[in-house]
Amino acid sequence: MELKFKGQHEEPALPPMIINEEEESEVEEVRKYRKHGRETQYLVHWKGYGDEHDQWIAETGLSYARKAI
User: Fold this and answer.
1) pTM (predicted TM-score)
2) Which CATH number do you get for residue 59?
3) Could you tell me the residue range of the domain that residue 30 belongs to?
4) Which long-range contacts (CB under 8 A, 24 or more apart) does 63-66 make?
C-alpha cells in the first residue's frame, strides 16, 4: 500500500489563457477580503490551481471577475 500525502498526486495546473496577448487565469472563487489602506483586496483562488497559489488581488485588478466578488 502506497502512502499518499497532500499534493503528492495533484493534477497539473491548467495553462493560463492568452487574452489580448496577456496570460489570464479564471477565478474559481473569492475566499476572503480585507482593507489595505483605502483599497479593498480579495483573496482569489484560481481555477485549476492549489491553495498555495491563492493571491491577494486589489479590487481594481479584478474588473473581469465581478461575478466572483
Assistant:
1) 0.64
2) 2.40.50.40
3) 23-64
4) 64/24, 65/27, 65/30
